[in-house]
Automatic annotation (TrEMBL):
Gene3D superfamilies: Aspartate Aminotransferase, domain 1, Type I PLP-dependent aspartate aminotransferase-like (Major domain), Winged helix-like DNA-binding domain superfamily/Winged helix DNA-binding domain. One of its GO terms (molecular function) is pyridoxal phosphate binding. It is an enzyme of class 2 (transferase). This is Aminotransferase. Keywords: Aminotransferase, DNA-binding, Pyridoxal phosphate, Transcription, Transcription regulation, Transferase.
Length: 508
């Protein structure tokens, strides 16, 4: 029974063992009634933990491929034993789907699903901030004034007028491009999926920020990429280390969220942006720049207090940092953004900026999945952009969200227990906090949900699944009145959880 496990693969060892044994059983190489080695013996032979073998055997039992008999051992079942019953899902699902880690989705759902709790967990805006009146108004205008009907089919890359408007919008933001360089998407996440299909082969190395948007991790892992995390600090990816990572791992892609990063809220300063782009070009490595939050910038805390700024009605938005895409014109950076964070995720409209030949390739791949972004959503976005109303709406959001960010910072300063640290995000949705030493985010989450407040544990975003010391707090999700009581509740829970952990022999 020769089994080879690859320790460098992104596929967990237990799953490699399941795959190898399953293949042998199904092909008949391991005949019915063959006695498998005891767990401990196989673990020693393969140089893995006994738990790895145990997990693999349990999986194969659930598939009806093997069975244990007390006192006799574990045996391969005859194929007849496997007929009928429930479908053997693990075999029926593709390797692509099996590589997906569903527990992340379940954990995210669990963090978000706490009725009546103050919600710092969910990664979207407060439904009350969706600009209903604006959307109603622009929808009516869009459908009235269009030379074509809302139900008309769109070209796969999007309506030419919308591509033009987005190209102008990006040019104003420092990314000079034409309509040919823009593709309208059904959300930025679709763009990510299409880039993975277009560029990533199994085994290709992808560099990401050490903590990153977990659907991106899922997308790369499902494609069987080797995902390596580059350390981050309060200014985002440590680009000073990037040359070493590129030399050692020869990445095909660098995935980055340089502005108001999810989950850390960090923003890369100009010199790091330059260093990232230059390093990528030196190693002929593509960069996917995911930028859903870049326009939501609040700058430093408002000097004279947030309420005054709101009352004055004068938006005082700091200057945006140029996206990476605006720093090169050789085509190494592929840019993604979306209306999900500035208008509503329900529009399902995002966009990609890249060389036109990349767009042609991605459009061909997209034809297999969805023909184009909803024409109605595109019409609405066209009206939002052409009327200039989106700019005013985003200006207003920046005032409101900057105020909520300040409320959260104030509450943390007031209530945070000793040993807790956090950053001051200059925009976006998220604040990243480090828990007092030894406290684990997952353990805290149970207590916090019980107490009536939720957050997203850092483990969700960690490349190596071991960042239990950080939590992500969405400061735009709750309404302003909930922030101070929510943070106080959270901080009290942290103190209580710390104490009870000490009371239980320090087990955390
Ligand atoms: C970094 C990042 N990229 C992409 C998305 C998803 O965008 P969309 O709704 O346009 O697919 C999100 C949403 O949370 C995000 O945080």
């Amino acid at each position: 029974m020769p089994i080879m496990l690859n320790r460098h693969s992104s596929v967990p060892l237990y799953r490699q063992l399941v795959n190898a044994l399953r293949e042998d059983i199904v092909s008949g190489a391991l005949a019915a009634n063959y006695k498998l080695p005891p767990e401990r013996e196989l673990a020693e032979r393969l140089g893995v933990n006994r738990a790895t073998v145990l997990q693999a055997y349990q999986q194969l039992k659930s598939e009806g491929l093997i069975a244990s008999h007390v006192g006799r051992g574990t045996f391969v079942c005859a194929s007849d034993d496997r007929q009928g019953g429930a479908p053997p899902w693990q075999i029926l699902f593709s390797d692509y789907s099996n590589r997906f880690t569903y527990h992340d989705i379940a954990a995210a759902d669990q963090a978000q699903r706490a009725p009546n709790a103050i919600d710092f967990a969910t990664g979207s805006q407060n439904p009350a901030d969706i600009p209903d009146d604006l959307l109603r108004d622009v929808s009516i205008r869009a459908f009235e004034s269009a030379d074509f009907h809302g139900t008309q089919e769109s070209p796969i890359e999007g309506f030419p007028q919308l591509r033009e408007l987005l190209a102008d919008h990006m040019t104003r933001r420092g990314v000079r491009c034409d309509a040919d360089n823009v593709m309208v998407l059904s959300g930025a996440e679709q763009g990510l999926d299409l880039c993975v299909r277009a560029f990533v082969n199994p085994g290709d190395c992808v560099l990401v920020e050490q903590s990153t948007f977990f659907p991106a991790l899922q997308a790369f892992r499902s494609a069987d990429a080797r995902v390596i995390g580059v350390p981050i600090d309060e200014h985002g990816m440590r680009t000073d280390l990037l040359d070493g990572y590129c030399k050692r791992f020869h990445p095909k892609l660098i995935f980055t969220i340089p502005t108001f990063q999810n989950p850390s809220g960090a923003t890369m300063p100009l010199h790091r942006r330059r260093e990232l782009v230059e390093t990528a070009m030196r190693y002929q490595c593509l960069v996917i720049e995911d930028d859903p939050y870049g326009e939501l910038c609040y700058g430093e805390r408002l000097a004279e207090g947030p309420t005054d700024a709101l009352a004055s009605g004068k938006p005082r938005r700091p200057r945006e940092l140029t996206p990476l895409k605006g720093m090169e014109n050789a085509g190494y950076v592929i840019y993604l953004s979306t209306f999900s964070k500035t208008v509503t995720p329900g529009l399902r409209t995002g966009w990609l900026v890249a060389d036109s030949h990349v767009i042609a390739r991605i459009a061909a791949l997209r034809r297999m999945i969805d023909q184009h972004t909803s024409s109605s959503s595109q019409l609405i976005c066209m009206e939002l952009l052409s009327s200039g109303r989106i700019g005013r709406h985003i200006g207003r959001l920046c005032e409101i969200y900057g105020h909520r960010r300040d409320l959260m910072l104030d509450a943390l300063h007031r209530y945070a227990p000793e040993g807790m640290r956090w950053n001051t995000p200059l925009g976006g949705y998220y604040l990243w906090a480090r828990l007092p030493d030894g406290l684990r985010a997952a353990r805290l989450l149970d207590d916090a949900r019980h107490a009536g407040v939720t957050f997203m544990p850092g483990d969700m975003f960690a490349v190596d699944e071991d960042d239990s010391s950080h939590i992500r707090l969405n400061f735009v999700r709750p309404d302003s009145r909930q922030i101070e009581p929510g943070i106080r509740l959270l901080c009290d829970t942290i103190a209580e959880t710390e104490q009870s952990a000490d009371g239980h022999g320090g087990e955390r």
